[in-house]
Amino acid sequence: MIGRRQFIALLGGVAARPVMARAQPRGSMRRVGVLVGFGESDPGTQPRLEAFRQRLHELGWMDGHNIEIIYRWSAGEQARINEYAAELVRVAPDVIMAHSSPVVAALQRSTHTIPVVFVQVTGAVESGFVSSWARPNANITGFETFELAMSGKWLDLLKELKPDLARIAVLYDPESPAARGRLRVLNAVAPSIAVRVSAAAVHDAQEIDRAIGELAQKSGGGLIVLPDNVSLIHRERIVTLANHYRLAAIYPFRYFAITGGVMSYSMDVIELYRAAASYIDRILKGAKPADLPVQAPTKYELVVNLKTAKALGLIVPDTLLARADEVIE
What mean pLDDT value characterizes the chain? Predict the structure, then answer.
């Protein structure tokens, strides 16, 4: 027979878990929160989460059997991010996977005890999420998307694609904690390849339209799109506008090139989610986030959309094609 205190505790657990109630006893079920910076319908997100679940399965964790995965989707809206971060903390999962810097920042404000494993974050130290890569010294650790120093590679590749570029606009979200560091790197590299970099801060679709339109008004311009929530949510619009104005552009993730962007240079995002699942496995087995170092990708991939380049009248150098990991024809 169940005791009164146990019965009340069980009722409280059910009330706190409105999304995915299960019949299994609480003691046999571990809970993993997932807070995503995109909407559930975002086409790039589901394959990553499937890789995340698959890796957990390989490690012995099956959703609905011995773990319950609680998803929240913010669609890039800061109010939702804050709301869902607080909500997940109230549910008190064993660990939370956090996608994007705004999500990590919201969780950091909401809890200092629940372990958080992040993916697709840049500048974790600069943003104050961890003390250092080697020793996070907090309840937060995870996998960086880009080291700030590699931002200059986008500039080099774009200049190689179109050597006569004289000025390059950098499309970025000013709310992104890592944006300032990336812009510093780009401005430091620009004089060595004889280009002028201008920063184009955007918050929404209207500002994206204006920024790309202004860049297109003068000849000799190129576009670098930085990895942040605004650019990722509006990626199809950005690619469409850049192609409409026939701009040489480089993007931060492969799926920009897949959807028609000229060129992308990025890490394998799928592998980041698999790695995050491995960290979550270790935490569920007793490891502390403070003892798990922040890690960066070990391999970056260059994707060239040759079909788009030809449509825009861009001649891709053979040297660039030879280094490409993937050429879309």
Answer: 89
